[in-house]
């Protein structure tokens, strides 16, 4: 017997309600996507801001660099201008120093001129007479120097003649003896005649023009009197004595004559510059060339005697009384 407890219910179960879990999951993904979008947008905005700030920093650095370069250039310009100013200041100091020295020199010269004018205006000094005496002393000094240094006898004579003319204008009796001494010294200069240096050069020129030594020519009878071996081999062999120093070949004679002319020219140049040692040495060498050009003969002896006579000539004047007038004039002026 079937009891109600044993009855098995076969009624189908009612369907369960739908689960809400999937809807919650889709919303979570949505919120996550929104958060990611917001985070990405914030990151992109931050990155843009960081890029802008970096660009601004770079622009600021470039601007600062340009300003530093401009400041450096301005500093260099200021330094250059300062150096130029320092140079100008140094040049101005040098110019001022030079001008100060020149001004000091002008002051000294003005003082000397004032002193000279005051001395010339002094009635006790006889200004015109002092000027004549100064001119006389200057002319005597010039004449003495022309004769001693340059050997200019004519110049010395003219200077002494001018000094005599100037001294004639001095009417002070104290200078009467000075005028007499000047006349004696002028007369001594006139008695000297030709200057020895000019005379020696003239004689050298005449000797150089007269040096025409013809070459020695063998006589016509020499070939007939020559030995047989010379007549046979004379065209092939030339024999000369070993101890003979006379030049016989035309080229040797031409060279010897050129050497003689050269020595005479050197002697003339030495005489012109008052070189007595060089003058005598050149004439001594000329004697050897004369012996080379000709054999011992009266003509050679005359030429050697001429060379020795020329070597003995003085090249400078010897005036024992030269400078006596100048010395006496200075003594008289010092005493006064």
Description:
The chain has 336 residues and is mainly α. The protein has three domains: 47-121; 125-193 and 322-335, no CATH class; 196-312, no CATH class. It has eleven helices and no strands. It has helices at 21-121, 127-150, 153-167, 176-190, 196-209, 222-225, 228-233, 250-272, 276-293, 298-312, 324-335. Helix 5 packs antiparallel against helix 8. The longest helix is centred in the N-terminal third of the chain and has 101 residues, at 21-121. The radius of gyration is 62 Å and the shape is elongated. It starts with 20 loop residues before the first helix and ends with a helix. 13% of the residues are buried. Mean pLDDT is 77; it is low at 1-19 and 213-224.
In short:
This protein has helices spanning 21-121, 127-150, 153-167, 176-190, 196-209, 222-225, 228-233, 250-272, 276-293, 298-312, 324-335. Helices cover 74% and strands 0% of the residues.
Counting structural domains, the number is 3
Give the H and E element order: HHHHHHHHHHH
In helices, the fraction of residues equals over 70%
- Largest sheet entry: none
Unreliable segments of 5+ consecutive residues: 1-19, 213-224
- The number of helical elements comes to 11
Mean pLDDT: 77
Beta-strand content = under 5%
Main structural class: mainly alpha
Q: How far from one another are the termini?
A: 201 Å
**Apparent shape:** elongated
Region (Disordered): 1-23
Pfam family, one: HemX
Transmembrane segments: 29-47
Organism: Lysobacter antibioticus
């Amino acid at each position: 017997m079937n009891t109600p407890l044993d009855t098995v219910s076969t009624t189908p179960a009612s369907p369960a309600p739908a689960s809400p879990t999937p809807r919650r999951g889709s919303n979570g993904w949505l919120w996550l996507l929104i958060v990611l979008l917001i985070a990405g947008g914030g990151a992109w905005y931050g990155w843009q801001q960081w890029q802008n700030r970096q660009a601004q920093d770079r622009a600021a650095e470039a601007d600062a660099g340009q300003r530093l370069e401009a400041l450096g250039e301005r500093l260099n310009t200021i330094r250059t201008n300062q150096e130029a100013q320092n140079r100008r200041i140094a040049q101005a100091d040098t110019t001022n120093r030079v001008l100060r020295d020149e001004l000091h020199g002008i002051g000294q010269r003005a003082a000397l001129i004032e002193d000279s004018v005051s001395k010339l205006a002094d009635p006790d000094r006889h200004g015109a007479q002092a000027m004549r005496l100064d001119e006389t002393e200057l002319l005597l000094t010039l004449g003495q120097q022309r004769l001693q240094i340059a050997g200019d006898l004519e110049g010395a004579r003219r200077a002494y003649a001018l000094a005599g003319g100037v001294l004639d204008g001095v009417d002070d009796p104290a200078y009467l003896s000075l005028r007499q001494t000047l006349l004696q010294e002028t007369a001594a200069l006139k008695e000297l005649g030709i200057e020895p240096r000019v005379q020696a050069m003239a004689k050298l020129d005449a000797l150089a023009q007269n040096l025409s030594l013809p070459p020695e020519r063998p006589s016509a009878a020499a070939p007939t009197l020559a030995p047989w071996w010379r007549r046979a081999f004379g065209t092939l062999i030339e024999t000369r004595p070993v101890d003979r120093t006379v030049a016989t070949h035309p080229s040797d004679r031409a060279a010897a004559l050129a050497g003689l002319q050269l020595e005479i020219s050197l002697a003339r140049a030495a005489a012109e510059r008052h070189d007595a040692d060089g003058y005598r040495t050149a004439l001594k060498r000329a004697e050897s060339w004369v012996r080379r050009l000709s054999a011992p003969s009266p003509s050679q002896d005359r030429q050697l005697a001429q060379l020795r006579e020329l070597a003995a000539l003085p090249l400078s004047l010897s005036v024992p009384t030269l400078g006596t007038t100048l010395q006496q004039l200075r003594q008289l002026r010092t005493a006064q």
